[in-house]
Write a structure and sequence with these properties.
Strands 5-4-6-7-10 form a 5-stranded parallel beta sheet, sandwiched between helices. By secondary structure, the protein is an alpha/beta fold. Keywords: Hydrolase, Multifunctional enzyme, Oxidoreductase.
């Protein structure tokens, strides 16, 4: 786009106040800049009305082609209200109710980037999904539920585009009895976990040759050194000895999520200018 004289797209990022959350930054701004995307970044403000006005203003501004809300927001902010204040056509992470509805109906839409990133990894590594047993651990609205829909969805959408994965999908969550959870995991060909519980799944629990896509991000402290490190929901060492495919944390799903966000931003920009 830029090489053909089109100005680099601007993306508005509403990010969390530093120190307000234990999560790690979703999007390294240097990655975005290397992709030719310019940013205007706001740290989370605590006035809901002002945030709505801000998002409405940028929604009308032609210069801005993408808007992203970094979740979770502080507890005093209403995530649904904030996400639905984003113009759907500029909602590059697919959290607006309009995009969610279109996504659920297998219609073309901007979709949540983490689930799309997981699907991209599955496709690129040739992991079989047709008729396979898939287990999604976690039912969050921005990761777990969209992942389950993509995994079980019809492989061909009505518009002819590639759709879901045609897997038989089970969702496990905090109220799934432990014995049932272990049963589902043991029979799973594909496991996607996004719970924020380190060590939730170990190598002794899984089927040999299965695929594990670990979306969990947990910061744990080494009691011996006092230093922290990032880990996923799975015990990587034991699972890696049994699984056929496994993503590390960090360095697995995260970079692909960022890549999908860049792709979504460029798609929104191209659509805005009919490129």
């Amino acid at each position: 786009m830029v090489s053909r004289g089109v100005k680099s797209p601007y993306t508005i990022f509403v990010r969390q106040v530093p120190g307000h959350t234990s999560s790690v930054p979703y999007v390294p701004l240097t990655t975005m800049h290397r992709a030719g995307i310019r940013d205007i970044t706001y740290e989370t403000l605590f006035d809901l009305t002002f945030v709505q006005i801000l998002l409405s203003f940028f929604g009308e501004l032609d210069l801005v082609q993408g808007i992203m809300i970094e979740l979770p927001l502080p507890e005093i902010m209403n995530e649904k209200v904030v996400c639905n204040s984003v113009t759907p056509e500029k909602d590059v992470d697919g959290f607006h109710i309009t995009n969610i509805g279109r996504f659920c109906l297998d219609m073309n839409s901007l979709a949540p980037c983490t689930p799309v990133g997981v699907m991209e990894l599955i496709k690129r590594y040739g992991i079989p999904t047709f008729g396979k047993n898939a287990v999604v651990c976690g039912r969050s609205k921005n990761v777990g539920m969209p992942l389950a829909m993509l995994l079980h969805g019809d492989g061909v959408r009505p518009d002819g585009e590639i759709g879901g994965m045609d897997a038989t999908t089970t969702i496990c969550h905090r109220y799934t009895p432990r014995d049932q959870f272990e049963h589902f995991v043991a029979s799973a060909d594909i496991i996607v976990t996004a719970t924020g519980i380190p060590g939730l799944i170990t190598g002794s629990m899984i089927k040999p040759g299965c695929a594990i896509l670990d979306v969990g991000i947990n910061r744990i402290i080494n009691p011996m050194t006092g230093k922290s490190k990032l880990v996923g929901d799975c015990d990587f060492e034991s699972c890696a000895e049994v699984a056929g495919w496994i993503t590390p944390v960090p360095g697995g799903v995260g970079p692909m999520t960022v890549a999908m966000l860049m792709k979504s931003t460029v798609q929104a920009a191209k659509k805005a200018i009919a490129f």
